[in-house]
Amino acid sequence: MLIGALSLLISVYLGHPLLLVLLGAACISGVGMTFCFTALSVLGIQDVEPSSYGVASSLSSTSYFLGAGIGLSFMTLMSQVFPSEWAVGNLSLLILIVYAIAALGMLFYFIVKNLKMKQAEIAVS
After folding, report:
1. Which of 15, 22, 44, 106 is the most exposed place for a label (fewest CB within 10 A)?
2. How far out from the chain centre does Cα 3 lie?
3. DSSP per-residue letters across 37-86
């Protein structure tokens, strides 16, 4: 996903070379979504009772697609309010960077929390 986003960002500044745009789209739509969506689904049902797997999986998918729809609407609104000569303006890049930093922060928090829980389980047993 990161490689795809970077190649699309670079293509904006290089005049949209077709090979770079196709590489970015392939990384995001193909390989990136395969890894990210599968990992999201697994993480969404990891600590759920087996009898509730269906509800947890559907809630995870719903929240993913709801967030994607709201995010796309928000980015479109921002591009209308703050027009730019490029498809990606500075404000859009700033918002995407803030999203990425927030996601990395949450990921780091959950990794640390999971490690502490495993250490507590080892100490108890």
Report:
1. 15
2. 13
3. HHHHHHHHHTTS-GGGHHHHHHHHHHHHHHHHHHHHHHHHHHHHHS--SS
Q: Assess contact for 92 and 78: CB atoms under 8 A.
A: yes
Q: What are the residue ranges in the chain where pLDDT is below 50? A: none
Residues 6+ positions from 9 with CB-CB distance below 8 Å: 88, 93
The letter for the amino acid at 108 is F
Radius of gyration (C-alpha) of the chain in whole angstroms: 19
pTM of the complete model beyond 0.85: no
- b (16+ CB within 10 A) / e for 74-92: ebeebeeeeeeeeebbeeb
40-73 tens-digit pLDDT: 778 778 888 888 888 888 888 888 788 888 878 8
Total length of the chain: 125
